[in-house]
Please model this.
Amino acid sequence: MRLDKFICKSTDFNRNTAVSFILDGAVCVNGEVITDPVMQVHENNCVKLHGDVLVSRPFRYIMAHKPSDTICSNVDEAYPSVLKFLDIERTSELHIAGRLDADTTGLVLITDDGRWSFNIIRPTQQCEKVYRVGLRDPMSESTAVRLEQGVQLQGETSLTLPAKVTIVRPKEILLTITEGKYHQVKRMIAAVGNRVVSLHRESIGAVSLDIDVGQWRYLSAEEVACFYAE
Ligand code: URA
Model:
C-alpha cells in the first residue's frame, strides 16, 4: 500500500494531510525518514508518524443486496449510492468490486482492499458471475447455445468469452459469465435479438447472495479468502 494511504488507514487524517506530513519529514519507515508519499509499505514495515508507531485498520469486506434505483458509485447522482445503506464509518474509503446498473438488483461486493477487488474484476481471473435474467421474448435452446459459445457485441473486436445458460422458464435464464464489460448482459441479450426486462446478480465466484434487499453483512474469512486463492 502507498505510504500516504497507509497513514490515512491508520489515523483519521485525510490524504492531503498525510502527504504534507510525509513531505515535512515527519514519517519514518523502518527507522528511515521517507519523503516519498507513493512509496510502497507492507504490513511488516514499522511506520512512525511524529515518533508514534502506526497500526493500519483491518481491511473491510462486505456483501450488500442492491435494490433497484441505486447506483454503484461513491457519490449520489440521479439515484442514491448503494454505500448509503452501510451504517458504518468511513464509507468514502470503500469501493465496489464490479458495478451494477441502476436498474439491476442483487449482489455487490464492497471493500477498501484494492488488491482483493482487482482479483474479482480482472478478466484473466475468470471469476464467474451468475445473473438471473428476465427476458422480453422466450429463449430457445439454439439461442442459449449461441450465448454460451460467444456473441459479437457492438463496438467490440472479439466474441464474448464462453458462458453458461440455464433456461429456468421460457422468459427467464441464469447466465454465468466471467467478463464484466459495460452493460455486458444487456448487450449479450441484445446481440441475439432479445431484450432484458429484469436483471439480478445472484453470485460472484463462491460468494452467493443470502440477505434481503437493502441489507448488508461482512463477509466471512472463507468468503474473503476465495478471491485470494491465486
Ligand atoms: N450486465 C449488465 O448489462 N448490467 C449489469 O448491471 C450487470 C451486468
Remarks:
- The chain has three domains: 3-53, 61-123+209-225, 128-204.
- DSSP finds six helices and 13 strands in the chain.
- The two ends are 19 Å apart (CA to CA).
- The longest strand covers residues 196-204.
